[in-house]
Design a protein that fits this description.
Blueprint: E1 8-12, H1 18-25, H2 43-48, H3 51-63, E2 69-74, E3 77-86, H4 91-95, E4 108-116, H5 125-139, E5 144-147, H6 172-177, E6 181-187, E7 190-196
Parallel strand pairs: 4-5
Antiparallel strand pairs: 1-2, 2-3, 3-4, 5-7, 6-7
């Protein structure tokens, strides 16, 4: 008998959900203590900022209702996270040699990070987060949503197992199934993909 698909609900990361986000990220602060501010501050600033300071940066955004991302829930438990916002909120993107958009970035929102709890991986959480990120971006005026996923079809990744870290910017097959189209190859293993919001 096939298992019932998970019932996944997604909400903006608002102050009342901070404790859920904190618990989801856990002692490793999502990935190596980054607290998902890697794409929000200059690289030199990131390297000089302590783990606790990074946490306070993220908490400050949540507390001020800036909504730095979306939280996926299974029941009452936070199961996953997606960092999404206007492209200009992520300064390192424009400084990046590989991820700088070749197209007009006005009206563009970016999906820069995912984190899914180990017990909920491979269960549709990322797919649901992408759908809701597009919907949320559209509701807030986006014309295009851009993403920078790992291309697991790349020749040098063929047959390799995806790790939690290597998929932190998304998986190209998930995005293509949801209507994202490849714009360019950022590297041999990473794509730039865009979704044009209808209307």
């Amino acid at each position: 008998m096939e298992k019932e698909p998970l019932s996944i609900r997604v909400f903006p990361a608002t102050p009342d959900r901070w404790l859920d986000l904190e618990k989801l990220f856990g002692s490793h602060a999502a990935s190596s203590g980054c607290w998902c501010v890697f794409w929000r501050i200059k690289r030199v600033e990131f390297s000089r900022t302590s783990r606790e300071e990074k946490k306070e940066l993220l908490k400050g955004m949540v507390d001020s209702n800036k909504v730095p991302g979306l939280l996926a829930y299974v029941g009452s438990e936070a199961a996953g996270w997606c960092c999404v916002g206007p492209r200009e909120d992520f300064p390192p993107l424009e400084k990046s040699r590989t991820l700088k958009s070749a197209e007009d970035a006005s009206g563009t929102w970016s999906i820069v990070c995912f984190f899914v709890a180990r017990s909920y991986r491979h269960k549709g959480v990322m797919t649901t987060l992408v759908k809701e990120a597009v919907r949320y971006a559209a509701e807030h005026g986006a014309r295009v949503v851009e993403a920078y996923p790992t291309n697991m079809q790349a020749e040098n990744l063929a047959g390799k197992k995806l790790t939690g870290y290597s998929g932190y910017m998304g998986i190209s097959t998930v995005l293509s199934e949801l209507g994202f189209e490849k714009v360019s190859d950022a590297s041999p293993t990473q794509l730039i993909m865009r979704y044009q919001i209808p209307g």
